[in-house]
Design a protein that fits this description.
Blueprint: E1 2-5, H1 18-27, H2 31-45, H3 52-61, E2 65-68, E3 83-88, E4 96-102, E5 105-108, E6 116-122
Parallel strand pairs: 1-5
Antiparallel strand pairs: 2-6, 3-4, 3-6, 4-5
Helix pairs in contact: 1-2
Length: 126
């Protein structure tokens, strides 16, 4: 895996918006547009916009498909095409993180390749 530092947040903030950053990059949509769409969907469901239930429903509505991971580390996967990956830390509280990976390159604000993969989304087939 290769890591490229990337931040879609127009204010270059790096806090609690990993889902918005990853989805923005994957869909090639402005960060603010993704935030607004996730906020509307989240409000209709009673969740925050970056809640896993919201992001999953949003990506599925865009034709992406979810695949459960086998808890191997990100660096052990050999992604060949675009993926949005749900990661978990090794910490007891199991914090989640959403990142974007395309053809073996992680685009994120930090290198998360050492984290365990909970699952990943594949984009719709062209």
């Amino acid at each position: 895996m290769k890591f490229i530092k990337y931040n879609a947040n127009p204010y270059l903030r790096n806090t609690e918006d990993c889902a918005i950053r990853a989805i923005s990059k994957a869909l090639n949509k402005p960060w603010k547009d993704v935030l607004m769409e996730l906020t509307q969907l989240g409000a209709s469901m009673g969740y925050m916009p970056n809640n896993r239930t919201v992001t999953t429903k949003y990506l599925k509505s865009k034709g992406w498909t979810w695949h459960r991971g086998d808890k191997r580390r990100m660096k052990d996967y050999h992604f060949k095409s675009t993926h949005i990956v749900q990661l978990h830390s090794n910490k007891v509280f199991r914090s989640g993180h959403l990142t974007y990976c395309d053809d073996g390159i992680i685009y994120d604000t930090w290198n998360c390749e050492g984290y365990k993969v909970d699952g990943y989304f594949n984009p719709p087939k062209k």
